[in-house]
Design goal:
This protein has 129 residues and is an alpha/beta fold. The chain has a single domain, classed as Cytidine Deaminase, domain 2 (3-Layer(aba) Sandwich), CATH 3.40.140. It is built from 5 helices and 6 strands; from the N terminus they run H-H-E-E-H-E-H-E-H-E-E. Strands 2-1-3-4-5-6 form a 6-stranded mixed beta sheet, with helices on both faces. Helix 4 runs parallel beside helix 5. It is globular and about 35 Å long. The relative contact order is 0.14.
Length: 129
Amino acid sequence: MVEKFISRSKIFKATGGIHGAALCDTKGIIVFSEDIGRHNAIDKVFGECMLRDFSTHDRIIVTSGRISSEIVLKVARTEIPLLISKSAPTDIGVKLADDLGITLVGFVRKRRMNVYTHAHRVVCDEMVY
């Protein structure tokens, strides 16, 4: 899923200075957006979901940006249980995700990732610890 996400990031490929965000399900990307701000990219995804009456319940958010507590709170308000990023989470972001029952995955690179909270939602062919 993250590879598909990266391939959709046309502006990032051209500039190297843009964040992306996507609402996904287990089959793929439903809504994708880019913006210079990581918060804005996520807000655009949620805005499009509202405009198109897409449910966010039990979906996945994939983002390129750092996962702060504010990002975790945005995701929690939309009942999304899984938050994935190519980047790192903050300590407070991890604690908040844990407290709110959100699975937080960071530093996703090819077949490697760090699962910080609620790992029961992550299924892999092989787990490396």
